[in-house]
Amino acid sequence: MPVKAKKSVAVPNRPRKIGFKPLKIADAKGRVVLGPAIANQPVQVEESGVGEWTVRLVAAVPVKEAWLFKNPAALKRVHNGFQQAQHRAFAPDPRKGRDYPWLKDVDEENV
Fold it and tell me: Where are the domains of the chain?
């Protein structure tokens, strides 16, 4: 019985369907639902033009820590410290090779 050769069939290029974004309508209070992917996350909304708005996910920074992001020199020092710690590049122990006689009197159980 002769074996038939398989023929490859080319699939014609079908025109892609033009995808329309679903229309969202603001409610009476001006709210628009963005969906579950954005639920319970802080966002920043900016008017970027007439009738145009930009919505960005943001991370909140505590007020006590905001100074660091406003001080580029301090932020760079923190980043450098993280890099050094990742590479285990620690400063030498300042206590090494020094004599601390007062340590003999410390009660270690109550420290």
Answer: 62-90
